[in-house]
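User: Can you help me understand a structure? I only have the sequence.
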Amino acid sequence: FSGGTWGMVVGHVTPEAFEGGAIALVREGDTITIDAHKQLLQLEVSDAELVERRKAWQQPAPRYTRGVLAKFATLTKSASEGAVTG
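Assistant: Let's start by predicting it. Here is the structure, written out as tokens:
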């Protein structure tokens, strides 16, 4: 981070929502518990609800379908893999 943050910050969760990571299942209004001492980041939603959300999840369509940004999105790996091309 640039130094503009203060206090506890969760800055990156992987795998990303676009790839179907657990963060893709979070909905507006869900409670998330963060406990730094226990190294815990927990979504307070039942397992049954998460199963239903996973069944309904669909990968979003790419935002860019042509041009340099589409090429970049196609060739670049996720941030967890270094965001490198290849």
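Now, to help you interpret it: The chain has one domain: 17-81. The longest helix spans residues 47-56. Let me know which part you'd like to focus on.
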